[in-house]
Amino acid sequence: MRTVRLQGPLFHVTEDPDQVIGDFLGFALSLRNLSGRLTAEELHERFRPGGSGMRLPDVFAAYRARESDAVPPEFDGWEAEDLERRELWVLTRLRFGESSPSALVEGPELRHLLDRALALRGDGSEGLFL
């Protein structure tokens, strides 16, 4: 399982060569600035197994892949049956006019990383997903 650490204002995640997961954590923990809701409450709602994920137009998308064509082509080989059994989330940093780097993270690990990021930010919400 990946680990997360906070360096200044940025999250760094092991096995995240393009910094997609780290950027996702930063954006996710900043949702409060857009919605006005408590961060932990909103994250729990958005990233539970049936959650809606997150879309920041022209910036970032995080969604659960439910069909094989929802998985970026660089991660080829996922069958619809696999996606029904496994909770796979696609994280994509959107870049206009360039390829958009993505990462795949299974649901339990995604929630673990969110929980750790909340704890590192010290808002008292750690353990929300456990």
Automatic annotation (TrEMBL):
Protein name (record): Uncharacterized protein
The organism of origin for this protein: Actinomadura namibiensis
